[in-house]
Queue: 4 jobs
Job 1
Amino acid sequence: MSAQKVVMVTGGTGLVGKGIEAYIQQQGDARKDEQWVYLRSADGDLRSLEQTQAIFRKYKPTHVIHLAARVGGLFSNMKYKVEFFRENIAINDNILACCHEFKVVKCVSCLSTCIFPDKTTYPIDETMVHNGPPHFSNEGYAYAKRMIDVLSRAYNAQHGCKFTTVIPTNIYGPHDNYHLADSHVIPGLIHKTYNAMKDNTDLVIYGTGKPLRQFVYSLDLAKLFVWVLDKYEELDPIILSVDEADEVSIADVAHTIAEAMNFQGKIVFDTSKADGQFKKTASNKKLRSLYPDLTFTPMKEAVKVSAQWFIDNYATARK
Ligand code: NAP
Ligand code: GDP
């Protein structure tokens, strides 16, 4: 009998980690021979090599989905460039070093479409990650994330390790970080809409509302992460995204959230605030070629679930 498969998910308490946990629970008996471990920062600080080694010694993972990161939206990235760079470099270096040291069979790490070059042709594809500087607003995060791809390929070239990476677009869903200043746009605007309804005020959208984004629902992404772990054999990154046609403006997003939460007040734009990169349109051609029957939850439906989750969990949600 072969040894048990132990899948360790770093960042298991976060938006994506919770999505993967829910998806694996839904699978029930289909994955009953596997052990899934969802790490939280209380299990150990992954910025510390000693603490990371202790975690690997304790759980003996055969497979790792590496999600843990310092994560934030545009405004947090602009404010804390040093922390975004240093913390993510340290976490990623420790995780890949331990995956090598403890002979992990496969590690799937997470990049983002926001690490691509600012000046580029569209749509962006997997071959373009390193083709030029990222947008200045998030260069700390972007360069740290790009190095996961470099280091994963280096471990493969030198030691034969099976370390690969995925590139999701902007993600949202239950268990998101709804912090008003540091979050991504969807959870931030859900929280702002909640406050505007409570205080009977306008809903203030930062920037012009014109930038374009592709959004992926955390539960849809979870299924794709597990598919990558099970079936994706390449070392090169793969973009996990909705179609190019599903790209929406920030103003569209604000209206979708307002409708989902039945906000009847006024939506206004604070153009003194940054827009960030205008667009990051990514191609999911590679994903569709390998996973032809791919479907995504309609955004209206998924935004409604995410907003309701925030309302239902207001007392304990990250905010
Ligand atoms: P998240 O909700 O902010 O969760 C971050 C997770 O990382 C939490 O479980 C947190 O643990 C853990 N963590 C952070 N610092 C840690 C440390 N020093 N030691 C141990 N654990 C630590 O993030 P997410 O949105 O799920 O993001 C998951 C991955 O997707 C990240 O790699 C991110 O870069 C990538 N991504 C995110 C987006 C997006 O829109 N959210 C888009 C593209 C890519 P605690 O909760 O216990 O503190
Ligand atoms: P990005 O997709 O990586 O740029 O990060 P975000 O999820 O933070 O989205 C940023 C875009 O949403 C920018 O165009 C912002 O101007 C716009 N935006 C509008 N209101 C907000 C808000 O309340 N929070 C955030 N994070 N972004 C907002």
Note: The chain has a mean pLDDT of 95.
Job 2
Amino acid sequence: MATQNFDVCVIGAGPGGYVAAIRAAQLGKKTVIIEREYLGGVCLNVGCIPSKAMISAAHFLHRVQHDAPEMGIEIKSDVKVNMKKLVSWKQSVCDQMSGGVSQLLKGNQVTIIRGEAEFKTAQELVVKSKEGATSIVAKNFIIATGSRPIEIPGFKIDEKEVLSSTGALALDELPKTAVVIGGGYIGLEIGSYLSKLGTEVTVLEAGATLLNGVAERDCVQVVERKLKKGGVKIVFGAKAKSYKKTGSDYEVEYDLAGKLEKVKCAKLLLTVGRRPNSDQANLKGIGLQIDEKGFVKVNAQRRTSIAHIFAIGDVAGQPMLAHKASYEGVLVAEVIGGMNRAYDAKTVPAVVFTDPEIASAGMLESECRAKGYNDLKIGKFPFAANGRAVSLKETDGFVKIIADAKTNIVLGVHMVGPEVSNLISEAALAIEMGARVEDLALTIHPHPTLGEVVMEAAEATLGHAIHIIQKPLSRAEGSSVRATH
Ligand code: FAD
Ligand code: NAI
């Protein structure tokens, strides 16, 4: 077996791994990246990008069907969905993105090896592919092997009867009915677009709320209301137990407060979370420490218990988000490159691409209180009072700012509404820079834009938003008073 030597060996070409490889190469390191499936990882091929492509198409359809007539746009014939064409367009988006990663890696002189990597020792790994086996020796390794869906008893994902997000994103026939087990990120994003395309969706959620611990309760309520209005059924406290085939359909049995209930569907999706791939590639065999949740243990430089091996992205801890993986990729490459770096981000912003979108940066109100911030200023500004939102006919939602009442420093920003995925970065920057609410309120935001809602939410937090009527108390006492919710 031939042996190749490198400075840096990256395992996994997702948004963690490919970014780490490019940055390491930029820093002059002889770098190899090993990928067993697709360049771009879960995110570009079966995660972030395809799901957003499907969401965009479904939102477009919904706008044409529901908003266009009121705007004076008359559609004379039926608007139809060609699922085969839609899925093939979605695939072309993924292929374009994955091809871009390939070009970037090659353009940066990163060696790409296709195959399954497994550590032999802490200094050497073997890559197996159809063509044979290669041995790689490197000074540093970066484990970026990602995660996979969790299964529950009674539901084995086979992408035929029980679908994960991967199978759901590839459906080239629209099911009449679907049951989604798990009302988290994936269940709601996929459930929403299936519903908009015309599927009758039932969400079985074991907990008492959707997106528990991910978003502010009042943000989630806006989405929940709209889902229900669009015909999505949500059953809380429902623990899926088993399913059986009944003709061409499935019957799912679930426990609801100790009673067994049943629901029928044509397609069954299991979206109850993802687990790190730390049980693969012989990570345990070479002695890497893994924590009780299955994440590879890392320090602030993302160094594992073996000093020359690093771990990043989904395999190295929450939150399992692409931009966190990429941040860690750059960080680790720079540590290996001799730069003085450590993980010091104050916030990892998060977006749920429902309708409307939910976005957040910084702490939830409950987290602020748990950290001892008991005196908070909280201000909210609704999209319904924003000219751009009204002209877009997308007025559901608001921006909410939570600040420390003693210093006015921004602790958390939570948004639900149109394009909040594109508005949250301003909030993340504010939190990273330790900005005060006044910094957001006194920054001139162009008109008419959705961004003005962030500025007005800051003004509302200070008690003097212009385009909503705040309580007289706030007016009398000016900016020193706490705004009302
Ligand atoms: P991955 O992207 O999982 O990449 C790991 C790669 O390693 C894979 O390509 C795998 O094939 C390869 N690999 C694993 N083991 C080996 C081995 N032994 N040898 C060789 N190769 C190996 N996040 C967001 O921030 N925004 C979103 O909108 C979003 N949407 C999502 C939608 C869905 C449906 C899903 C499932 C996830 C979504 N995520 C989203 C999460 C996001 O995809 C992950 O956080 C991100 O992909 C993690 O990146 P990573 O580099 O750690 O791992
Ligand atoms: P999740 O953790 O977001 O949600 C899982 C949900 O399933 C929870 O609400 C949980 O209470 C529920 N659940 C668990 N067991 C259950 C059972 N037996 N029956 C019914 N409900 C049950 O997990 P999900 O949606 O699979 O997503 C995995 C991860 O992928 C996310 O945590 C996120 O990190 C990432 N992701 C990010 C996206 C984004 O950034 N927009 C989009 C999609 C995924």
Note: The longest strand covers residues 132-143.
Job 3
Amino acid sequence: MAEKKKKDLDRNRSMDPAVLEVLANTEGSGVESAYDRFLNMQPQCQYGNAGICCTICIQGPCRITKKASKGICGAPSYTIVARNLIRAVLGGTSAHSDHGLHTTLVLDEVAEGHGGDYGITDPDKLKRVAERLDINTEGRSDQEILREVVDLAMDEFGRINGQYSIWLEKSVIPERVQKFMECNIMPYSIHRTIAESMAQTHMGMDADPVNLVFQALKSALCDYTGMHIATDLSDVLFGTPTPVVTEANMGVLEEKMVNIALHGHNPVLSEMVVKAAREMQEEAKEAGAEGIKCMGICCTGNEVLMRQGVPPLTNFMSQELAIMTGAVDAMVVDIQCIMPGIQAVAECYHTKVITTIPNVKIPSSYYIDFDEARAMEKAREIVSVAIAAFKERDAEKVSIPQVKSKVVAGFSLEAIEELLASVNPDEPYKVITDAIEQGELDGLCLFAGCNNLKVKHDESHYTIAVELAKNNILPVATGCAAGTYAKFGLMNSDAVEKYAGDGLKAFINRLDEANKDKLNGEKLPLIFHMGSCVDNTRAYDLMTALARQWKVDTPKVPYAASAPEAMSEKAVSIGSWCVTLGMPVHVGIVPPIPGSPLVDGIALQIAHDVYGGYFMWEEDPQEASRKLLAAIRERTWKLKVHRAAAEKYETSLSPTW
Ligand code: NFS
Ligand code: SF4
């Protein structure tokens, strides 16, 4: 049998031993997960895969074939691919900015004095955000500052024209804003851009692929803005993350406790459930449990890990398998990346799936409308359902894989800055730029994104990060990529010993040494967990900080991004703004673009000429590591050459490379 065929038939498509154990335990039980459905779905449609299937009007679907080189309306492949691409970006932009809007609206209530159980947890962050946005903080109360910050945030969604996005302008370096203005992709606001982009892709509207791609990038900048608002305001509401220590993977499930899995993305709900669970330990004991344990899946898991030290249970691909351990009493979900399949799996066990948001319901699930005005009351109701479910648990069906690893997480940009400031209080980021100039580090890489069974679950995340760490690239991670590293023990100091190249090891050891009184005896991890997917903005802020330190535009900073197992529309929009903001971006699943060599060429090459960032598609993790290393090292090399020349001739850095 051809190698590919064998791979396609393998149900055990994961590198995670806990996942393999659950799959083995449930083999033949009839409980179906994504690992089975993926096989049922083969072979997948190659037209869709290449992006050349159009369903934008109901004359379609139109597929580009040898016989039919254009859609019925005459749209060629480049129009179809570009329109599909922009719609994927809009899916991501809408999802992220709706999340940001939700956070904004909660803070709007706080600003009006009706926050209920919500309040300003981090007034210092509020001031930092306000100052960044040029909002006066002198002599004003937190409440007054918050009012103005929230008003501006609301404006970022609804502004019609006359003023370009302020949140975007103030979060990136001026050179980038100038670039966006020159290319006419600087947005007024999120909602306006989403509407104009949807209009642009209606049947019989824009057919020009370049115009469409530029509009996709403008939409992606709105994605960035919505995410930045979400991160900034979540920090104000719940605190800016600082280092925390816990464990990850299915071994965190406790046989004798009420296990609540928090799944989704928005901390507005999960923070409250964590709080309620802490308060309701007695109720759980009355029900015969030893207590209540919360644990996270996907990005709501990352949010409560970063701020509350809640252990990550698993990442996207294996969300159903968590239930198949028989030990999850309730899976509480908010928004995004929630497989509808969890309900059918839960019905084979005692697990209650609790949906909580009006636009995220799953038939037959338990729905508790999470009304923010009564947040704690609702959170307690949710925890009560979990406690009641615990009593129904079937001990025969419980089988918890004893697999877990220690995790040190909580690296917001502020937390990283503090670590660096222990070495250089005046210029913290110089600690990184010096390490790169002196050859200790070769650069940085952000690992982000989802899981996707088109490659083996977790394998690409793992392989590429380890390979880059060996080659002295400082790794940071978010989202389900971070989930992989947490599960596999790459987010603790043992991994530094095992995998870091000599330079990276020396760098981390120096930070450890300078911070030894601050980390409660802990040591720093190999990979720095910067948070959920909206927190990719934290990772980009790090790039901005390095660009400011070097006084160069971001495309000159040796910092790449990689989404080895990308899956969602959100990953498409994040990848697009990373490119627009100047990063080389590796994607390990080829997105539906190559059906138009023209659009593919824009993504892979032309983008580089215009924005400095560009995409690289590469499924093979070893090959991807080589490409990422080459992309980062090229920048490091150029930067060094130009800095040496500027020093020698006593001139400023040439802006033209
Ligand atoms: Ni990002 Fe986080 Fe995970 Fe992918 Fe989904 S949870 S927001 S989209 S699957 S990383
Ligand atoms: Fe076909 Fe054109 Fe309609 Fe798309 S918009 S489905 S290509 S006729």
Note: Residues 54-57, 59-60, 62, 71-73, 75, 80, 203 surround iron/sulfur cluster (ligand 2) (CB under 6 Å).
Job 4
Amino acid sequence: MTTRFDPVEMRSRFPALAQEVHGRPLVYLDSAATSQKPRAVLDVIDEYYEHDNANVHRGIHELSRRATVAYEEARTKVARWINAADDSELVWTRGTTEAINLVAMAWGLDNVAEGDEILISVLEHHSNIVPWQILAARTKAKLRYIELDDQGRLDLSTLDEVLTERTKILAISHVSNSLGTINPVRTLAEAAHRVGAVVMVDGAQGAVHTQVDVQALGVDFYAFSGHKMCGPTGIGALWAKKELLEAMAPYQGGGEMIHIVGRDASTWASVPHKFEAGTPNIAGAVGMGAAVDFLTDVGVDSIVEHERALMEYAMDRVRAVPGITVYGPESLDERSAVISFTLGDAHPHDISTILDAEGVAVRAGHHCAQLVMKHFEVAATARASFYLYNTTDDVDRLIEGLGKVREIFA
Ligand code: C6P
């Protein structure tokens, strides 16, 4: 029997949301930066450290066995969450950033050469720009961009010009962190595969609000972070098709990733361990597995439905604020739970400071997306981002806070 989704009850499951900030009950609208963590996830991490803590894949004692089982069970949960064909296709990383760097270096250095092209977009987070710039510089490949339209959507009218027989990889975000734009990944993947390119998706904001099916998306690599989906910081994953992982050279050398070490050379462990050098973030992996359990238990459909209704309410109220400019797609079908805005002449840092004094947490700045800011000719925006624990009361408090901003800047 499924119980009706109750956002107020949901909020009460996140201990950090119970506090006051500057004398006001906290309204947390910065989940795109990192989500809050439910008690259920915190308890699993505590339990791991209190009872099972040991190194994995090394000892034969009981605690090492338990830690290894917990670590590998978490891999299975996260692999299932994105519908990987096999658990071994999921490599633990520190997060999305490390996963993208892993692809750029371990795949890129062997598969991209002078004269080749790497295709990304203007919408990308710096984590999905800079590793490709480094790869392009090392290989003398050319970095090309899909441009944006005036709503911050990918301009696909010029796709044929930028996606060519020379394109070796298309690296694209699933969902933009700065605007919330949802990209047509499946369509792009089909187009990229037609010219023989592989497709890497930055899923930092994608695997968060809905369940991702990497097989249905038809991509080759998918990178995501635990901390944006109710899990701990310092853990994330790279999913890749097994044949790609098997063909790739290791990313880092060290313990855990080897089979036999000789004086001059070594052989590698099988995938995914070939890419997991050193003691991994075991508690992080266990916590990310617990986050997947939590989201599964809440029900992805309920989360999607709740966030859609909340966004309809929030967009209507935010758009009605005099002097506000909202960036990003107009249609909620093309926008995730993010509202990026500027308000009159108020600098976004001032907006954020005034809102903070009211207990409302939003992010202000370029959101690690300086090319997006340049596209809209702004230095920064304020960004309110929503998650399953936000309520219409939170939206009302945001609007009240924006009223204060208007009073001060009137
Ligand atoms: N965006 C934000 O406030 P890491 O830091 O490795 O977990 O994720 C990096 C990253 C990559 N791609 C996208 C689309 C992202 O949103 C992020 C993280 C945060 O928007 C922190 S800058």
Note: The first strand starts at residue 20 and ends at 21.
